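#struct-pred
JK: can someone run the complex with alpha-L-arabinofuranose? inputs below
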Amino acid sequence: MRSKLLIILFLGMILILYTFDSVHNSSTRFTSSEDKTAAKNVVNHTDQDQGLVRPIVLGFSQLGSESAWRNANTISIREAAEEAGIELHFEDADQSQSKQFEAIRSFIKQKVDVIAIAPVIESGWEPILKEIKQAGIPLIILDRLVNVSDSSLYVTYIGSDFYEEGRKAGKYVIDKLSSKKEIVGIVELGGTEGSTPSIARGKGFRDVIKEHENLKILKSQAADFTFAQGKQVMKSFLNKMGNEINVLYSHNDDMALGAIEAIEEFGLRPGKDIIIVSVDGTNKAFEKMAEGKINSVVECNPLLGPNLMQAVNELMQGRSLPKRIVTPESVFTETMALEEVGKRKY
Ligand code: AHR
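RT: done, structure tokens with the ligand placed:
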């Protein structure tokens, strides 16, 4: 009887030791040398209830697919998530803020680890950002900014300095045309009304040209960052004041490409009769610059995927992030175009 009891006790201890070992190893799964690479790419994220290792889940609300820049941005995010072993839940809002709200609410329901949003416009975000905060999910703002009174509603904002981009475009126009005695008539194709790049690129441009009395903005109109609207709005500018237009400042390449078609159909030469300054730096814009149809492109970098995944990883490791992460960018002119064309990554 006593020896039976000892055997049962012994087997029980073995069972306890085995269970402890497997639970312990599940949170340090990547320990052998072959698994080191996997350990680098797949972030160890311990599920508090289960003690399991699973990838970080990121819910990303992309604002749309309105431009070549946006498509490059989406590809960069998808590729970087895969590379980092982060599970990406991706929603395209088709330029609609209410669709972004829907996507965010579904991310909250899914209990994702981190939410990131590229907001279509700046206003109207405070209530939904509060919902995210109440759910205890950290939020990263990407590309465009939100206008909220409480900046603790998001962790960090990663993206370009759009104001500086507008200033760079203005400086190009000053260098090229401010010495002219006569009035230089400028038309502006704005992006989506109320969006950060449209607001800031417009302001930066105005702030630098305002010192030069001969540089005059004749007309400015939003064209939603799309080729089709860029063409249509430029056509209406030309019909109203064709001969007074010396410069087109376009807030992105897609609208500039649409405008080039409108200018040619009107019988003028883009890049010669009308100087064109655009923003983004897509391959197609570089091709037009190499043909002499665009004069200068201010770069705006869409390849934000790696920065976003790094921020997500650091956040999940409990590190604090700077409130603002700015992507470095350049300016290109016709003389550089031939060398650069085809080398662009987007
Ligand atoms: O927010 C970035 C801007 O959005 C890019 O300049 C434009 O091409 C895009 O649609």
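RT: quick notes.
The domain at 162-300 is CATH 3.40.50.2300 (Rossmann fold).
The longest helix spans residues 2-26.
JK: thanks, will look after standup
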